[in-house]
Each structure stands twice: as structure tokens, then as C-alpha cells.
Amino acid sequence: MNSDYIVIIALWIVLPIILFKVIPKDRIREALATLMFFQTLTWLFSTGLTYFGLLESPIRVFQEATRLSFTMEYLVFPTAAVLFQLKFPNNSAFVRRLLHYLFWVGVILSFMFLISSFTNIMGVTIDSLIRSFFNFIIELWLCRRYVLWLMNHPQLQRNYE
Amino acid sequence: MMNIEHTILYSYYAAAFISLRFIPRDKWREASVIFLSQQFVTWFFGLLVVELHLIEYPVRELAEVNKTSFLFEFLAFPIITIFFCIYFPQAAVAWKKVLYTSAFCTGLTIFEVVFVKYTLLISYIRWDWYVTWVSVYAALSLSYFFYKWYFKIKAE
What Rg, from alpha-carbon coordinates, does chain B have? Predict the structure, then answer.
């Protein structure tokens, strides 16, 4: 079996376990909303980028049904978004929050770079990394706006006692 | 000559956006969660049925990127699920709930069968109308349970 598929299988085992471990019980709804909203964003963004030939993933799970990397768009990036959201420094100064954005976008870009260096799961070039930098800043920001808006619902507000 | 498939697709996109107007103002948060949870399901299963050669969508948008129906999986079915969950007869007796869900399944299946017969939007390879019916029933019920859990709605 191709080593790329081993990486894909490993991701599908490890990342759900990480999610299961890091999500506190009282924030499970917030985490799920983040995960699902980010999936919608990556679905849209990756579809658009692939359509214009700006993104490619040679080795993928649904080889025939789609040209998107289902593993990256459905699992890896949304997982990163959940971690970003759970660790967000809510009451900190602007610079601290900005650094949080840059740190997690850095994590995502490094991961993309590693994946493209050692596997064929994703083809990444310098310009696609630069595009991704802006895309992920925008996506994380949108995702955060959505989750904050959603959590205003009376049934979803957390107790801070 | 009219291109029937693309006209239908376009009408469906328009109908999907117009239908958003009929989501009650105070239910937008609920609606968004229902929408996202259904996408979580349809993205995966939509790809699966195409990959396993069960269903084919000869005429579709974004044909170079996906062999699935982006319209149905990303927009149409999640929006239908919103209305299904928001207007679910929660206080009714069991058989009325079954009837309500069955009505949605039957409606969707009829549309699909018509499209299979008369258009190139969708064709069955190893599939049948009752598989659609059952899977829609399962997907709608699953979404409703998730919605009830998410917003801590107690059974009456």
C-alpha cells in the first residue's frame, strides 16, 4: 500500500482522538459548531480554488468522486479551527489575539508544507501558501464571528460562575 | 432550444435562496445549526454514493471539481432539513410524527424519480427509489435528534 494512504488513515485515527481529548464537556456545542461551520467554509473555498486550478491533491480518499482532498478539508483544517477556537484568549489585548491568529495559521501552513513535502496528499507551492495565509485568516475570523453569534442563544450561553 | 437541466438547476438555486426568507426571524441560530449538521452528513455520503458507482449526476455544476450534486448536498437538502426540523410536530402523537417525516421523504423521492426518468440531472446505477426514501428518512430523523440535543429541547 502507498505510504500516502497510511498517512491519511493515521490522520483519520489520530485527529478524532485529539478532538475527543481536548474538547471540554461544557464546550462541546461550541466545538461542534466550529467544526461544522469551518467544514462549510473549506468546502466552499476549496471548491472555488480547485475550480480555478489553484489547488490540487493527487492522492485522496474519494479518488473519483471529487478532486478535493476530503481528508484535509473535512478533517484536518476543521480540527485546527476547533483548537484555535477552544484556546482563544477571549479577554486579552488586541496584540495577543492577533498573535493567536498568526500562531494557528502558522500551524496550518506548516502542516500543509510538511504534507506536500513528504506525501502527495496535497500539492503546495509558495504562492498557494501565501493564498492560504490570507484564506485561513479570513476563514478563522468568519468562523469565530459565527460561533460568538450562535452562542448568544439563551440555551447555549455558558455559566461563568 | 431550452436547456432543461440547467434551467432546473438555476431555478433550484433561486428557490433555495428565496426560501431562506421564510425561516422565522428568531430561529436563525437554530436554522444555521441544522443546516451545518446536515452538510456534515451529506458531504460524506454524497461522495460515497458516487465513489461506489451507485448514483451518477451526468449534468451538474462544477463538473470538473465534483462528480456529486453540489446543489443538493450543499444547499437544497440542508435547507429542506431546516424547515423539517423547525416545523416538526413535537407535541403530536407518534404516528403523526412518522406521517410528517414520511411526507417529506415521499415528496423528495417523487422529485428525484421524475428527474431520473425525464432529465440527465441524476441517474441510478445501482440504486432504487426506496433506497432514497429510507436514507432521506434516516438523515432527517438524525438531524432532528441532533437539533433537539443541541438546543436542549425537552420532549413534551
Answer: 16
